[in-house]
Specification:
The complex is a heterodimer of chains A (473) and B (581). Chain A is an all-alpha fold and 473 residues long. With 581 residues, chain B is mainly alpha-helical. Chain B has one domain. In chain B, helix 15 runs antiparallel to helix 17. The chains are: A mainly alpha (473), B mainly alpha (581).
């Protein structure tokens, strides 16, 4: 029996990403022009973003309840699609500069995005696993896409080995859960018999996903992978998979009857060590990419605070935060990708000295993204953090809220250090300004616009994310 | 509200001006300076429009603007001005053109950004003083950090980056805790609106457990105490001041520090009265330590700018002491001292900056005998130093006197210790003055120094005029904020306290002043001309007939508004309790 038409509409973004990726691969031998591939990829990802509207218009389950469309999946599909679009827009000039082949690169981004969308909309654990694998395997290749660079090879290998471990944990967790509940559908997982087995399964699941979101103590791969990967890919890693994995984590802890209660303490501990691991690690770095990598870890910790709160505000906070975070991180990495210059040789702190004099607009944009990551008002990051605070306090987690505050202050040190370098230090040697190409400027403008707009008017997103039927059926 | 949008205009006009600066060419320094000055002068003129809007004797908020901004959680764009914030706003708008003028020549590097930041800073500070929504308040509080950070970090002296980072980290450490407290308060009350929370707490719709109240108080207080700065949280201040450019120091000392004491007055006392009372002995002790410690360190400073910075620690100690003495006179003194400090210390920093422009040093030992080459600068310096040390007829005296007077009603011991600071301030200011300006000229360079230019002279004449006006015409000022100070005390009353103190219907009238005011009676006889006896014209007068005023029934009525007899005589117990605290 063939599924009815609207079931395909419900997963249209995924289909477009898969189809687009395949098409790019097929066209690779025939098209020679970089521009053509870039335009194709842009058009494809834009269509995918637009098609999210279609899946939003047809809510419901698809393909025997394995996957489906609900407000949460729509939100995350949109986020992933937008991230993919912006990464593609920003990487055309990068690929040309580093003389990397465009077709496979874009195709891999499409497949990764498809995987993330599956992850965000799966309602069944094995489907989620397939999504996780799709996004991970594409990511491993993308991490090592600069084949000549030893750092990229290290990055890819590390990501692959540790990532495989993580997926193994995840799969084992699913097996244990299936054994103890008799189903793999998330919303139906109730333990058949009391005992340790389902908890163990869920714990393994959590470990696997913690790897993917770079939560301590499973975060060790992050700085190396982020540093070695081509910077546009790093931008994708920090915004896309993290959002999708958190989406799955949210779905599990909101929908799965098994996951109710008693996990607050686990999240509490995870959040605290992740925040400290990220922020303290970042203090010692001198490489801008590594600083941003450690800051990603810290941000995973902030988001876990909302998980520890485990209330409705927390869910809304996670959604808003991921959006704000994606805009800021994409923008920041796009600046680094461009200013790094050929071979990404200029990504040390010292290389940014005097940037405000050379390229005031780039410095101002980069500062804006950093301030959003830091959570200064009038940026989206501030509201993200504010809603997390609100969630934590609504669940009376005052200690955790205070620790989050302490971490924000620690984080202020390294974000401000970057700003200091740009604005208050003179460059060691004369460096020429690197004017931004139009596409990258557009990316920066869009990210900055989102950062400021949601920093002033968070209403719509919060209203959307506070929908009680966020994870509907 | 029919009042229009004056407050919004006040907040955002400098932002518009700052944007206008961005359009100008970066190397067109003359026009950048002119535009910045014009914007700040217009802003000052606009702020003067507030004065008629806040009538004498009214404690309510005026020119309120209330608009929904964020739906969930309900955050409002709520502005309002009362007697306390009125003058702080005017102080800000007054000091901004002054600091722009002061940086006319001394800033030659990245001029456009400098004035941009200065105007942006004004946006933040004015916003802080006018916000009536806790969230909005916090927002401006944080926004203001960045321009100051850049001002210190880009245009400061040698160790500027260290000082800038220290300044931001200290402030953020405090403010993030305040954010936690604000959100927590929201989870309890369901709103961020200050007047609403105030009403809810005061009417007893919502009550905080003593522990919660103490924690909330501590979080707010810590944020403000860092800003003030209260001993032992003051260590960022000397660094920030010494490294900041003159304009930065003027604004920092003149206005930014006041945000801390303003916060205590606006939030700590009215929202958490029980906790404030519990903490008062500790806070007062720290304030007194700050007064004496700041003065002693100032006494031994070889660096003139650091000396002025430490004198700030000492002076702000007075303000905190006045606030935590919880009576009308001391509160009026505290507000007055905030304004004084802004003017006097601001002027001192200007003078020190002028010396620096000429000699590029702050070391006292590099100066000596400067009154010979620069008689005018020396004269202005002496005038300002005298105002800062509290010479009668000049502004500093009024504030310190009122604080000591009010504090002595709370605790004579506190007042006695604090008075030490007055003596010490005479010591460090006059001694440093002597070393800088008197004696023979010891360095050859100093012989050639030019005296004040016309621009500098006009800056100083303006400052000196304000110093003198505030010293003589203090009633012009106190009359406008006395009622608001009284209102703070009224807001500190809680249902159970009110039932004990004044179970009469008058206690429920919003503007009515319950028994707390009776403690002001004795002082009215001593110094009727300096501070304003709290009254609402045509309303209920402050001076209810408690035991104390009965003792003084022969005293002449010192204010015409006292003609109305009180509606609710307080019971002796309450006035005793309040008077002896």
């Amino acid at each position: 029996m063939f599924p009815p038409r609207e079931e395909f509409l419900r997963v249209l973004p995924i289909l477009i990403f898969c189809g687009g990726g395949t098409l790019l691969m097929l066209l690779q031998p025939f098209l020679r022009s970089r521009t053509a591939f870039s335009l194709l990829a842009l058009a494809g990802s834009l269509t995918a973003v637009v098609s999210v509207g279609c899946s939003a218009a047809h809510p419901g389950a698809a393909f025997y309840g394995l996957i489906g469309s609900d407000p949460a999946s729509v939100f995350f599909e949109f986020l992933v699609g937008a991230v993919a679009f912006l990464v593609i827009l920003g990487s055309a000039s990068y690929l040309e500069r580093e003389s990397l082949a465009p077709a496979e690169f874009y195709a891999l981004i499409f497949f990764a995005a498809a995987g993330m969308c599956v992850l965000a909309s799966a309602r069944e654990m094995l489907t989620a696993f397939i999504g996780l694998e799709m996004s991970s395997i594409s990511s491993y290749i993308l991490a090592g896409y600069r084949r000549e660079s030893p750092k990229a090879a290290e990055s890819a290998l590390k990501y692959f080995l540790l990532g495989s471990f993580a997926t193994a944990f995840f799969l084992y967790g699913i097996a244990l859960l299936y054994g103890s509940t008799g189903t793999t559908v998330i919303a139906q997982m109730t333990p058949l018999a009391p005992g340790l087995l389902p908890k163990l399964g869920l714990a393994l699941l959590l470990i696997g996903l913690s790897f993917k979101v770079a939560a301590a103590p499973f975060q060790l791969w992050t700085p190396d992978v982020y540093e070695g990967a081509p910077t546009p890919v790093t931008a994708l890693f920090s915004a896309g998979p993290k959002a999708a994995t958190f989406a799955l984590l949210l779905r599990i802890f909101v929908e799965m009857p098994l996951a109710a209660g008693e996990w607050t303490r686990i999240f509490w501990i995870l959040a605290v060590i992740t925040m400290f691991a990220g922020n303290l690690g970042a203090l010692l770095q001198t490489n801008v990419k590594r600083i941003l990598a450690y800051s990603s870890i810290a941000h995973a910790g902030y988001i876990l605070v909302a998980f520890a709160a485990s209330n409705e505000i927390g869910v809304a906070a996670v959604l808003f935060y991921l959006l704000a975070y994606a805009a800021a991180k994409l923008g920041a990495f796009s600046v680094v990708a461009h200013l790094g210059g050929a071979g990404e040789k200029r990504i040390e702190l010292d290389d940014f000295a005097g940037l405000a004099q050379r390229q005031p607009i780039a410095a101002a944009a980069f500062s804006l993204f950093l301030l959003s990551l830091l959570g200064i008002p009038v940026t989206a990051g501030f509201f993200g953090k504010f809603y997390i605070f609100k969630a934590a306090l609504a669940s009376h987690l005052i200690g955790l809220a205070v620790l989050l505050g302490v971490n924000s202050v620690i984080a202020a040190y390294y974000y401000l250090r970057l700003i200091i370098v740009m604005y208050m230090r003179e460059p060691k040697e004369e460096t020429a300004a690197l004017p931004f190409p139009g596409a990258v400027t557009t990316v920066l403008a869009l990210c900055a616009l989102a950062t400021v707009y949601f920093g002033l008017f968070p209403n719509h997103i919060i209203a959307f994310a506070s929908n009680p039927r966020l994870f509907g059926h | 509200m029919p009042a229009g949008h004056l407050l919004s205009v006040l907040i955002f006009f400098p932002a518009l001006g700052a944007l206008a600066l961005l359009i100008l060419r970066g190397d067109d320094h003359v026009w950048i300076r002119r535009v910045a000055l014009a914007v700040s002068l217009v802003e000052f003129a606009l702020s003067l429009l507030l004065v008629p809007a806040v009538p004498v004797g009214s404690s309510a908020y005026h020119l309120e603007e209330l608009r929904a901004w964020i739906a969930s959680p309900p955050i409002h764009y709520h502005l309002g001005v009362d007697g306390i914030s009125l003058f702080l706003v005017i102080l800000t708008t007054f000091l901004t053109p002054i600091s722009i003028l002061a940086s006319w020549k001394s800033i030659q590097h990245r001029v456009k950004e400098f004035f941009f930041m200065l105007l942006l800073l004004e946006v933040g500070v004015v916003g802080v003083f006018l916000s009536l929504d806790l969230f909005l308040f916090f927002l401006f509080w944080e926004v203001m950090l960045l321009p100051m950070y850049f001002l210190i970090g880009i245009w400061g002296h040698e160790r500027r980056i260290y000082a800038a980072v220290k300044f931001v980290l200290y402030t953020m450490a405090g403010s993030i805790l305040m954010l936690v407290a604000i959100v927590w308060l929201y989870t309890i009350t369901g709103t961020f609106d200050l007047p609403t929370i105030q009403t809810m707490l005061q009417a007893g719709y919502v009550s905080l457990s003593p522990r919660a109240e103490l924690l909330l108080f501590s979080a707010f207080f810590l944020a403000f105490a860092i800003k003030v700065p209260l001993f032992p949280l003051h260590t960022w201040l000397p660094d920030a001041h010494v490294e900041a450019p003159t304009a930065g120091s003027v604004i920092l000392a003149g206005v930014l520090l006041k945000m801390g004491t303003y916060g205590m007055l606006r939030f700590c006392l009215p929202l958490f009265p029980a906790a404030s009372r519990r903490a008062a002995p500790l806070v007062a002790t720290l304030a007194i330590i700050g007064i004496i410690y700041g003065a002693l360190v100032a006494l031994v400073q070889p660096n003139l700018k650091k000396l002025v910075a430490y004198s700030s620690v000492s002076h702000l100690g007075f303000v905190v002491l006045g606030i935590f003495a919880f009576n009308n006179i001391s509160l009026q003194g505290a507000v007055y001292q905030m304004l004084n400090h802004g003017i006097s210390t601001g002027a001192l920093f200007l003078l020190v900056g002028m010396l620096y422009d000429r000699r590029h040093t702050f070391e006292i030992s590099d100066f000596g005998g400067l009154s010979t080459p620069m008689p005018r600068l020396a004269a202005f310096f002496l005038f300002v130093a005298l105002s800062s040390l509290g010479l009668p007829m000049l502004n500093g005296f009024v504030g310190e006197y009122l604080i000591l007077l009010g504090t002595s009603q709370a605790s004579v011991k506190w007042a006695a210790w604090a008075a030490l600071g007055v003596i010490l301030s005479a010591g460090y200011l006059l001694w440093s003055y002597q070393r800088v300006f008197y004696g023979p000229v010891t360095h050859a360079k100093n012989k050639e120094l030019p005296d004040l230019s016309a621009r500098e002279q006009w800056i100083l004449v303006t400052m000196a005029f304000v110093v003198l006006w505030m010293g003589i015409g203090s009633l012009d000022f106190t009359s406008r904020f006395a009622a608001s100070c009284q209102n703070v005390l009224t807001q500190m009353e809680r249902p159970q306290a009110q039932e004990a103190a004044a179970p009469k219907p008058a206690a429920t009238v919003v503007d009515a002043v319950p028994a707390a005011a009776s403690s002001t009676a004795p002082a009215a006889v001593v110094a009727p001309a300096i501070y304003h006896d709290t009254v609402i014209p045509g309303g209920v007068p402050a001076n209810s007939a408690g035991t104390k005023s009965r003792n003084l029934s022969s005293a002449p009525t010192s204010s015409p508004a006292r003609r109305n007899t009180p509606a609710s005589p307080a019971t002796p117990t309450s006035s005793e309790r309040l008077g002896n605290r």
